[in-house]
């Protein structure tokens, strides 16, 4: 595979950084929930630890949002290589649909988290700095709205895992069954 059929270095870097951040954020969210439950159960966890964890998650989520918007802008201005020859119509639709679903989740998850955070009582401190309070969005300040928006945001974590599983399975199929060098487009050290 020639270098003209690879993604650009910027696209590759954004792909791997955002992928690691998204997956890491889901695991970190589970850790945050454990901390919150431990606090409510009277275990040796302080409110400060819980708030620190939530603020770190929200700050990182905003970073994911900005990087994802940058990646989308890069993708729209620097089209990637086309799909490999020999793919059936349903495979082409699945590949295209999965990629656009990833963009939706990469942008939608942070926005959903921002909505849920805006409905919650404690302010969001960017980088856990009390001088950097994130303004709240104009959303209902009710427990019901906050609960629903937080639940939808949490469900997005499962969507990340499903999409990632499909994406990895398809990449492995291309690498080991189709042997079309598709993974070399996004993994610089692989040969096409």
Q: Could you characterize what this model shows?
A:
The protein has one domain (3-185). The chain is 68% helix and 2% strand. It has helices at residues 9-40, 47-77, 89-119, 143-178; strands at 124-125, 133-134. A two-stranded antiparallel ribbon has the order 1-2. The longest helix has 36 residues, at 143-178. The termini are close together. The model has no long low-confidence stretch (mean pLDDT 93).
Q: What keywords describe this structure?
A:
192 residues; mainly alpha; two-stranded antiparallel sheet; Cyt_b561_bac/Ni-Hgenase
Task: Compute the number of helices.
Answer: 4
Largest sheet: 2 strands, antiparallel
Helix content: 55-70%
Quickly give the structural class: mainly alpha
| Total beta-strand segments | 2
Strand proportion, as a percent range, falls in: under 5%
Count of discrete structural domains: 1
**CA gyration radius, whole angstroms:** 19 Å
> Main sheet: which strands, in order across?
1-2
- Low-confidence stretches are none
Family: Belongs to the cytochrome b561 family.
Cofactor: heme b
Protein name: Cytochrome B561
Organism: Maricaulis maris (strain MCS10) (Caulobacter maris)
């Amino acid at each position: 595979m020639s270098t003209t059929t690879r993604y650009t270095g910027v696209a590759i870097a954004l792909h791997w950084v955002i992928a690691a951040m998204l997956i890491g954020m889901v695991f970190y969210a589970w850790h945050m929930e454990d901390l919150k439950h431990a606090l409510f159960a009277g275990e040796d966890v302080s409110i400060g630890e819980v708030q620190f964890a939530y603020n770190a998650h929200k700050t990182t989520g905003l970073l994911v949002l900005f990087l994802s918007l940058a990646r989308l802008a890069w993708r729209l201005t620097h089209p990637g290589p086309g799909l490999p020859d020999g793919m059936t119509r349903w495979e082409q639709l699945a590949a295209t649909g999965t990629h656009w679903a990833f963009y939706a989740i990469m942008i939608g998850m942070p926005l959903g988290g921002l909505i849920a955070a805006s409905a919650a009582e404690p302010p969001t401190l960017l980088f856990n700095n009390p001088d950097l309070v994130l303004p709240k969005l104009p959303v209902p300040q009710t427990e019901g709205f906050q609960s629903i928006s937080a639940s939808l945001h949490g469900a997005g974590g499962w969507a990340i895992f499903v999409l990632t599983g499909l994406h990895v399975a398809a990449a492995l199929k291309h690498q080991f069954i189709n042997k079309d060098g598709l993974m070399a487009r996004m993994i610089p050290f692989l040969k096409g």
